[in-house]
Each structure stands twice: as C-alpha cells, then as structure tokens.
UniProtKB/TrEMBL annotation, chain A:
This is L-lactate dehydrogenase complex protein LldE. GO terms for cellular component: cytosol. GO terms for molecular function: oxidoreductase activity. Residues 9-88, 133-228 form the Cysteine-rich domain.
TrEMBL record, chain B:
Keywords: 4Fe-4S, Electron transport, Iron, Iron-sulfur, Metal-binding, Repeat, Transport. Signal peptide: none annotated. This is L-lactate dehydrogenase complex protein LldF. Residues 292-312 form the 4Fe-4S ferredoxin-type domain. InterPro entries: 4Fe4S_Fe-S-bd, 4Fe4S_Fe_S_CS, FTHF_cligase-like_sf, Helical_ferredxn, LUD_dom, LutB/LldF, LutB_C, NagB/RpiA_transferase-like. GO terms for molecular function: 4 iron, 4 sulfur cluster binding; metal ion binding. Coiled coil: none annotated.
From TrEMBL, chain C:
InterPro entries: FTHF_cligase-like_sf, LUD_dom, NagB/RpiA_transferase-like. This is L-lactate dehydrogenase complex protein LldG. It comes from Algoriphagus aquaeductus. Residues 90-186 form the LUD domain.
Length: 252, 452, 186
C-alpha cells in the first residue's frame, strides 16, 4: 500500500505527548512504513475530553475550536487513542462558524487501528512478535468506535486489532475470560471513584494474569497507564505496550 | 452518602464484593448466551425501541384508549399525579374493603412511591410475596436490584434470618429448604388476603388488558385468591397492540435472567365474576422526564435489570450504593430527574463504558444520557469541585504555549518531588497506582528534533 | 383539575411529533416444532410425557385430590370442584387443557374460558397440561397472531413449574405455585 498523496495530521493525545512519547514515535514510524505522508501540527494541545466527561463540555469551546482550526486542512487525522478520537467525533460542542469543518473532521478522523484496517486496508502484516499478548479493549474504542464486536450484542464477531496482530509470526493472541470489560480508568472516575477504579483495574489484571499474558496491549494509553500504575505498584510482572509499539517493532 | 463513599464501604469486604461481581456476571453471561441463540435479536431490540418511541410520542392518545378499553372490560381505572396520590388511592380502596392485611407482588413503582411504610403507618399489614422481596422486607431493607431483590445477601445470612423469623433449623443454608419454608409461610398469607397488589409489566391500549410476569407465581397466587386486585403502573408501561407483547416477552426474560420466558405471564382483562380489578396510572415525575428531550427515552425502560448485571460499577458497588429506588445505570439517568441534588453523584458513577446501552433490550442510550446528566448537574451543582480545575485546564489546553510550559513543569516536578509528596493520601491516583515513568522529552520535543 | 386531566395536558403540552409504529415481521425458528418445544419445556424444568408415562406416574403417586378440566384424554377427577378456590389449597393435581404451545420457549396459553378457577394452575401441587401437537407454534409472534384479539377475562402463558433463584441464584422449583409441570402432547 502506498499512499503518498493524502496528508495525515497526527493527533497525539496530551498525556501521550507528555508521558508516552515512544507511543507517538511508534505511531508516526508505523504510518511512515506504510508510505503515509504524516505531519504533527506543533500547536496541538488536549482535545478537551477530561473536561467534557466531568460535565463541562460547555467550557471546551476554546479547545475544540483550536483543534478544528489546526487539523481542518489534513486529508485524514489519525490518533493512537480510541477515546480521544471518539471525543472529537461525538462530544465536541458545536463551534459556530466552523460547522462545515467540524463535520468534515468527524468523517476524516480515525483511531490508528481502524485507519490501518479500513482506510489503508491492511489485511496481512509480515512481522514477528513471539509473545503471549493480551488485548485490553478500551471501551471508547470498542463500543464507541466499534473497533470490535461487543460481547453484549448478537453480531458477527470481529476485532480490528486482532486482525492486525494475529498475523504476526509467533504472536499468541490470548482469549480472556471477560473479553471486553472496562478497566475502571474512566478519566476523572479514576480519582473520584478511586476504590472502584482500583478494584476494576485489579480484576482486569487478574484476568490477564490467569491466562499467562506476557504483554498487555491496547489502543488507548489511558487504560494502560491505569493498569500499569496498579501493576507496577503491586509488583506484577506483566509488560505493557501500545498496539502501535508492537506493530512498529514487529514490522521491519 | 455519595456513591464513591458507599462504593468504598461496599468494597471493604473484598470477598463478598468479589462474590457479588461474579454472581451478577453469571447472570449477564447467561443473558449473553441466550441472546445469541435468537438470530433476530438485534432486530427485536430495534422493534422494541421503535414501539416504545411511538408510545412516548403519543402517550396521551394511548392512555385514553387504554382507559376506555379497560373500563369496558370492567377494570376500574384511577389516575395519580404523584406518589402521594397513588398511596391515597390504594389506601382508600383498602378502607372501602375494610381490609387490614394485603399481599403484594413485585412492583418497583410501589417501592418508588414508598407504599409499604405509608400503608403500615395507616395500620395495614403488607406482605411482599416475591421471595427476594420478602427476605429484604424482613430486614427492613429496600430491594438492592429490581429483578433480584436480595442479590446482595448470602445464603448464610438468609438462613439466620429465616431461623429468627420462620423458625427454620439453625444453620440450615440449603436454598431448597429455605425456599420451601417461605412457601409455607406465604401460602398462609395468600389464603388470608382479601386484597392483592401487583405491578404491571405491560398494558395494552387496544385491548385494555395488562400483563404481569413472574417466575414464582406469587402475583397470581395473590390476586386469584383475593377479592380485589390493585395493579399499579407507571404511565409509560403502555404498549399499543397485543401483538407487540410478542416482541417484549421475547426480550424481557432473556435480558433479565437469561431464560427464554418467565414461567407465568398473566394477561388480566376482566375481573372474575364478583371480584374487582383496580388499575392505578401513575405519573410521579414521568411527564416531567418526557418533557426533557435528551432524557425522554429513558422512559422506554421495561425494568429487565440487564444494565445492572452488565455494569462493572453496579457489580462491584451493590444496589444500595446508588441510594435510589432504581439502582444501576438506568437508575442513574432516571433518578436525577426526580431529585437532582440528592442523586448528583450517580451520573458520575460510571466510566461511560457503554455496556449498558449495548445490552438494553429497548436500546436506551444510557451511557450517553449519563454524559448529558453530567453536563446538567455541573450547571446547578458546581460544588462538585471540578469546576475550577477544569476551567484552568481548558485555559491551558487552548493555548499551546501555556500547555507546553505546564507540561514541562509537570514532568520536571514529577522528577524532582519526593515520592512521599506525589503519593500523598489526598492524591487519589497515587494511593493504589504508580505514575508512569517520566520521559526526558515529550513527543513534541522529539518530533522537532527528528522530523523538522 | 383532575389528575387525569393534569397528566394528559402535561403530555400534550410537550408538543411532540408522532413517531411511526413499526409493522412486525413474523420471525420463525429453524428447528422442528415438537423437538424444540420439548427442549424448551425441559430447560424450564418441566417435562413432556406421553400418555403411558403419565398414567404410570399417576398410578405410582396415587394422589387423593385431582381436578380435571381437560376433555382430550380420559382421566377423571377424584373431587368435585369447590366453589371457593381457597378450598383447593390441598389439591394434589390439576389436569388442564392448553390452547396452544410455543416451541421457542415452552410457553403454553391457558385461556380462562377453559379454567374453572383462575387460581387452579397456581394453587395445585402438581400441574399437568394436555396439549395438541397440532397447536404448536414457532415463536411468540405466531402465538399472538393465533390468539388474535379473542376475549378472555384472564389468559396465561405458562412455561414451567413455579421457580425462584432469589437465594444466591440457586434455582429452586416450587416457590409458591405448582411444584411440577408435565405436558402431555397428543
């Protein structure tokens, strides 16, 4: 696949920018390996999701306007985060004067996995990653963007991340007992409902541990930051990688 | 108590909290499996949702049609604008019958109206006949789940309770033994009651009949032995046509407990000769919710409880943590409409994971309404404490320079501050979680060095 | 203003646009009706028996009090029907006639025109329902089509014996109503 003409605006969530630059780098390098022309607009900040989910969507007009102006001229916008992409699509307040641009952004912003499978039509990857991998489905990616079928619904099972990972040589895709239960991060929920958030995170980690997962991956670093925070505090030995890191490392 | 406080309390008994989660997961799993045996499941959900949307869009028309047909059938129809009026109507019927003791099958509406304490205050003995409801009634507790009222109790606790109340053998925890003891106890109540109260699952406008679903048969045991049947329903329980029951009965039990249908699905159309049926149509905040466009379709709810069973929060915090008659996700979008201040923490008791919306048999967008309630609640209850910090954050994020400075400062601070300060108890992130390791440079710094 | 007027005017005051009522497709099932029905009844903790099996069970139990309200098979009552259903409290067995059965879930329609007392299917210790094989329908959709708008003062879809799982989700048969359900398909 060689897409030289479309210009991709790389949207790196604020906490990824600050805490997980390696995920940003992996995303950029991966897209470049597929021949994409990628730019990272330097003026980008936060999409406003933490404020909106806390009940202050009305106070995010400034951040949303800034985002739209910064990204409106790209052919596609890609981010290594289902949660932030869902926020831009569903929870931006209406920005007066930019309605048309806002609608266009809604239609051209993609989470990394779905950009690879649906836009670049990647269906067979050659690469090697000889590990037992457990996938944490972020709820916003899973049920918000429909990156995978949800266990509650009666539909043909699919999982876009799995379709990318399972072709890697040596990779063992681990099926969990609860395939798509929330990890308990939930943005401000992680601090306002601290006890529940921790319990949910531990339960997710236990599920991965019971299935002897070596590397826990996912498409959202926020979930992983939470799970990794617990695992590191409790001395659990599972490793954490963003999906982009696995793909970028496996594909040469 | 706020939801976070109640949840923290609930989680202190780790073993019991784990058991609660696993027990409800078992119910959820049964639902997931049985729903997948029906190829047209998602189509049924669509149909049920559309039928309910049609009903809500012309509720006045259906209510009048229902009343006319029910009256033609010999049912006495009453209207109550609120809980108080509902309770008064029930009491007046009982007084007319000179009735001092009643049996009542499960009705979330009567819980919502606090009918039991009202009747007891007026000297009426109320016996809840659903086994789970009888158990919690003995304990002076409300149901902790709308379908499984005593799901928060372990059999050891029930055994002790029955030993005290029903004189069962001490220490005998066998569910069959305990259930059959309750059967004998309640049989006596059924045989004596002159008036029986039930809830209503569906009321059919075109026929003027109403349907009550149970597995135990307690609703029917009550009403067929009593002289007077009082059925209490929220006005949103109307459906247009008898054939619509086909859609709803296929969805209800499968969603609720993972069984193909409830064992007793009784259609009441006319009283037996010499007997009476009274039906009370209750508003109690429903027309106000109907007027709230964003929250209107919460009234599509058929009270199956599937959103509770699937909710990772409900399973780990228990029904009582919500402090509302209907707990769980659906309760968290219904209750703020009744009392926003009291229930202000409920829409925040969610990660917005969306499982509730995907499981709902009538396709209520529950998690989206939780999000919308948050927007409403912060307008009037800014004291939730997030206001200032969020405005500050917005100020930072809309200005790239401010963001960069604050980001750099944050990373620098995390490196230099002593651990004891970062993991100070007031910092709830750090109580049970480490922060990520702080990288030397942000992605942006890297990008500028490597790609520009 | 009466509460009725209050409620109706509150609804009308919202000024909603009417939304369409969908037509219902008639979904079927793939499996053969009798075998599906049998499986459903068994899943609901009931049993489907033939007349011989039923007669044997009846002989073995020697119930003192039996009420019969079915004309399809030749079994006779041991007691005459009391006027007051309370007197049925110690009834051992009721043999009733089902009007139709639903294969997908085992639900059997009992119409009170065939029920001498509405309390009968509930108050009896054991319940037997006689059902014609020709009266089996695939799903609830066809069942309601068949019932149409027939007027019965009381009608019941019964699918199994009385049951509860209110104590730790452990299934117990015989909560308040019948302790067992047998369906004789003829």
């Amino acid at each position: 696949m060689n897409l030289t003409s479309p210009h991709i605006g790389l949207f790196i969530p604020c906490y990824v920018d600050q805490f997980y630059p390696k995920v940003g780098i992996a995303t950029l390098e991966l897209l470049e390996k597929f021949g994409c022309q990628v730019s990272f607009p330097l003026g980008q900040t936060c999409c406003g999701q933490p404020m909106a989910n806390a009940g202050y969507e009305r106070d995010t007009v400034g951040t949303a306007r800034h985002f739209i102006e910064l990204f409106k001229d790209f052919d596609y916008i890609v981010a290594p985060s289902g949660s932030c992409v869902l926020h831009v699509k569903e929870h931006f307040p209406v920005i007066s004067g930019l309605e048309k641009e806002q609608q266009e952004i809604h239609d051209k912003i993609f989470e990394l996995t779905e950009f690879l499978t649906d836009i670049l039509n990647v269906n067979h990857l050659s690469g090697r990653f000889p590990h037992k991998v457990g996938y944490h489905a972020s709820c916003h990616g899973q049920r918000g963007l429909r990156l995978a079928s949800s266990s509650e619904m009666n539909s043909t099972p699919f999982n876009k991340a799995k379709s990318l990972l399972e072709n890697l040589e040596g990779l063992e895709w681990i099926t969990l007992s609860r395939t798509d239960e929330c990890c308990g991060f939930g943005g401000t929920f992680s601090v306002t409902e601290e006890a529940l958030s921790l319990r949910m995170g531990r339960d997710r980690l236990d599920d991965h541990a019971q299935h002897e997962v070596e590397i826990l991956t996912g498409g959202d670093m926020s979930c992983i930051m939470h799970l990794q925070g617990i695992a590191s505090r409790e001395g659990r030995n599972v490793k954490f990688m963003h999906l982009a890191e696995i793909l970028n490392q496996a594909i040469q | 108590m706020s939801h976070p406080q109640a949840a923290t309390e609930f989680l202190k008994d780790q073993a019991k909290a784990k058991w609660h989660d696993e027990t409800l997961w078992f119910v959820r799993d049964k639902r997931d499996r049985i729903s997948k045996t029906i190829p047209e499941w998602e189509e049924l959900r669509n149909l049920a949702s559309q039928i309910k949307e049609n009903v809500l869009s012309q509720l006045d028309v259906y209510l009048e049609e229902f009343e006319q047909n029910a009256q033609k059938n010999g049912i006495q129809v009453h209207w109550a604008k609120d809980a108080e009026e509902h309770n008064e109507i029930v009491l007046s019927i009982l007084q007319k019958q000179k009735c001092r003791a009643i049996v009542k099958s499960k009705s979330i509406l009567t819980e919502e109206c606090h009918l039991n304490p009202y009747l007891e205050k007026n000297g009426i003995e109320v016996v809840d006949t659903d086994l789970g409801e009888r158990i919690v009634q003995f304990l002076n507790q409300p149901p902790s789940h709308i379908v499984l009222p005593a799901i928060h109790l372990k059999k050891g606790e029930i055994s002790e309770l029955f030993h005290e109340k029903l004189h069962t053998q001490k220490g005998n925890e066998d569910p069959t033994y305990l259930t059959h003891a309750a059967r004998l106890h309640l049989r006596e109540k059924f045989l004596k009651a002159k008036v029986a109260i039930t809830g209503v699952n569906f009321a059919v406008a075109e026929t003027g009949e109403f349907v009550v679903c149970t597995n135990e048969g307690n609703a029917d045991m009550g009403v067929h032995l009593a002289d007077v049947h009082i059925a209490c329903m929220g006005i949103e329980k109307i459906i247009p046509r008898r054939k619509d029951l086909g859609v709803f009965l296929r969805l209800l039990a499968r969603s609720a407990t993972g069984q193909p249908v409830t064992n007793y699905n009784s259609h009441f159309r006319s009283p037996s000769p010499g007997k009476e049926i009274h039906l009370i149509l209750v508003d109690n905040g429903r027309t106000a919710q109907l007027a709230r466009e964003k929250f209107r379709n919460s009234l599509k709810c058929i009270r199956c409880g599937a959103c509770m069973n699937t909710c990772p929060i409900y399973r780990r915090s228990g029904g009582y943590s919500y402090g509302s008659t209907v707990p769980g996700p659906i309760g968290s979008i219904l209750s703020p409409g009744l009392d926003m201040k009291k229930h202000s923490t409920l829409p925040f008791a969610s990660t917005l994971c969306g499982s509730c919306s995907d499981v709902c048999p009538v396709k209520i967008n529950i998690h989206e309404q939780l999000y919308e309630w948050r927007q409403e609640i912060t307008k009037t209850h800014g004291e939730l404490g997030k206001g200032l910090s969020m405005k500050l954050a917005n100020g930072i994020f809309k200005s790239p320079l401010a963001y960069k400075i604050s980001g750099n400062l944050m990373r620098a601070a995390l490196k230099t501050l002593p651990k004891s300060l970062i993991y100070h108890p007031i910092n709830s992130w750090g109580k049970g979680r480490n922060l990520p390791e702080t990288p030397n440079e942000s992605f942006k710094d890297w990008y500028q060095r490597n790609r520009k | 203003m009466s509460s009725k007027a209050f409620i109706l005017s509150a609804i009308r005051g919202i000024g909603q646009k009417g939304k369409p009522l969908p037509e219902l497709p008639s979904f079927g099932i793939e499996e053969e009706l009798e075998s599906a029905f049998r499986k459903s009844i068994e899943a609901n903790k009931g049993q489907v028996v033939n007349q011989e099996e039923f007669s044997e069970w009846l002989r073995a139990n020697n119930f003192p009090k039996i009420v019969v309200a079915s004309t399809s098979i030749p079994f006779s009552a041991t007691i005459s029907l009391p006027e007051d259903p309370h007197e049925l409290d110690d009834l051992n067995l009721a043999i009733l006639e089902g009007q139709l059965g639903v294969a997908e879930n085992g639900a059997i329609w009992l119409d009170d025109r065939h029920l001498p007392h509405r309390a009968l299917p509930f108050i009896t210790e054991h319940l037997v329902i006689v059902l014609l094989k020709s009266r089996l329908f695939p799903t609830m959709h066809q069942a309601y089509e068949e019932i149409g708008n027939q007027h019965s003062g009381f009608g019941l879809f019964i699918a199994g014996p009385s049951k509860t799982a209110d104590i730790e989700q452990s299934l117990v048969i015989g909560a308040h109503g019948a302790m067992s359900l047998r369906v004789i398909l003829v």
